[in-house]
Amino acid sequence: QKEVEQDPGPLSVPEGAIVSLNCTYSNSAFQYFMWYRQYSRKGPELLMYTYSSGNKEDGRFTAQVDKSSKYISLFIRDSQPSDSATYLCAMSASSASKIIFGSGTRLSIRP
Amino acid sequence: DSGVTQTPKHLITATGQRVTLRCSPRSGDLSVYWYQQSLDQGLQFLIQYYNGEERAKGNILERFSAQQFPDLHSELNLSSLELGDSALYFCASSPPGHSPRSGELFFGEGSRLTVL
Predict the structure, then answer these.
(1) Contact A94 B109 (CB under 8 A)
(2) What's the start-to-end Cα distance of chain B, in Å?
(3) Alpha carbon separation from A37 to A52, A84, B17, B40 (Å, rounded)
(4) What pLDDT is stored for residue B99 in this prediction?
(5) How far apart are CA A75 and CA A20, in angstroms?
(6) What percent of chain A has pLDDT over 70?
(7) Are A43 and B108 spatial neighbours (Cβ–Cβ below 8 Å)?
C-alpha cells in the first residue's frame, strides 16, 4: 500500500465549476500537508501549505485536512482554463523530514 | 523562476551508460532533495541532503548515488542505465529550519533522461 493515494484522473470540468481534489494517506505521523501544481514540462510549485487539521483559504483555493480520517482535499472555486495542470498532494511528518507526494491528478478546465 | 538550477535539461544516452545530473539550490537553502517522475509512478522521493549530509533515503536504486558538496550544489549519479530509468529527475531545495517557509520545496525545471 502506498503511503499517499491520489486519484490520477484525468478530471475535466467546465470553466467556472468547483473542483474537488483529494488524497488519502496511511501514515498518522504526517503533520504537514501541501498541494503542488505542475504545468506541463515544468517543475511543481507550491500552492497551499497547511499544518495539522483544519481549513486554509487563499483566494479561489481552499485546503482541508481531516487527520482523523487521514484525508485531505483541495477545492478550486470559479475554475479557470489557466488552472489546467497536474495537482499533487504532498505530506511530511516534520518540516525537516522527507516529503512524500501523491501520484498527481491531471485537471483540465474546459472554456 | 524558483531559483533552483538543474543541468542538463535533456539527456539521451544508451543502456549501460552512466550520467550525472547537477543541481544548484536556491541561495540560502541548505536542503536538497532528488525526485524521479515517470508517467506510471508519479513523483518518487529518492534522497535528501542537508548541508552536505544525507538526511533521508527513499526508493533509490543501488545503481544510483548522490552527494551534496561544500558549496551546497548536488549531483545525482545514475549508472548501468536501463530503459526503465527514463524519466524526469527533479531537484528541489528548501529553506533552513528556522525559516517561516521551511519544509516548502522549490523545484527546478527537471532533467529529462531518455535511455535508448
Answers:
(1) no
(2) 31
(3) 21, 9, 33, 18
(4) 61
(5) 5
(6) 98
(7) yes
Label residues B61-82 b or e (16+ Cβ within 10 Å = b): eeebebebeeebebbbebeebe
Q: What is the model's pLDDT at position A9?
A: 82
> At residue A11, what are phi and psi to the nearest 5 degrees?
-120, 125
B2, B97, B104 ranked by CB distance to A43: nearest:
B2
B33: contact with A, CB 8 A cutoff: yes
Give residue A7's pLDDT band: very low, low, confident or very high (50, 70, 90): confident
B4 touches chain A (CB under 8 A): yes
pLDDT at residue A52 in the model: 82
Query: Chain A residue closest to B102 (CA)?
Result: A95
The side-by-side arrangement of strands in the sheet containing B64-68 is B5-7, B19-24, B74-78, B64-68
**Which chain B residues are within 8 Å of A103, Cβ to Cβ?**
41-43
